Amino acid sequence: MAPPRRRIETSFVFFDVAYVDGTRSSNRKVPATALGGLDGDDPARGIIEAQDREIGLASGRPRPDIRAITRTPAKKSEFA
C-alpha cells in the first residue's frame, strides 16, 4: 500500500492593483509567508511587479506602472 500523500498547506493573500493608466487587476495572489513582520504588506508590491514582468514577457506587451495596491476585502460567508 502506498504511503498517504502529504498535503502542502499554502495560503495566499489577495490584492487589488490599480495602474497609472486607470486599469485595475483584482485578486492578485501573494504568498502569505512573504507578508507580515515589520514590512507588513510592502513586499507584495515587489512580488506583483515581478508577476507583471512575467506577464508582459509572455504577452509581448509590458504592464503599466502600479499606482496603488490594496488588500482585497474578505468575502462574507452566506452562512455567517
Structural write-up:
- The chain is an alpha+beta fold and 80 residues long.
- The chain has one domain.
- It has 1 helix and 3 strands, in the order ββαβ.
- A 3-stranded antiparallel β-sheet has the order 2-1-3, with helices on one face.
- It is extended and about 55 Å long.
Helicity range? 10-25%
Question: Class by helix and strand content?
Answer: alpha+beta
Tell me the number of helical segments per DSSP (H or I, 4 or more residues long): 1
> Which percent band covers the strand fraction?
25-35%
Largest sheet: 3 strands, antiparallel
State the strand order across the main sheet. Answer: 2-1-3
Can you tell me the residue ranges where pLDDT is under 50 for at least 5 consecutive residues? none
Question: Tally of extended strands?
Answer: 3
- In total, the number of domains comes to 1
Rg, alpha carbons: 16 Å
Shape: extended
Mean pLDDT: 87
H/E element sequence: EEHE
The span between the termini is 41 Å
Ordered list of secondary-structure elements with their pairings:
Blueprint: E1 12-19, E2 24-31, H1 42-59, E3 66-71
Antiparallel strand pairs: 1-2, 1-3
List its traits.
80 residues; alpha+beta; 3-stranded antiparallel β-sheet
Concise account of the structure shown:
The protein is of the alpha+beta class. Helix content is 22%, strand content 28%. The termini are far apart.
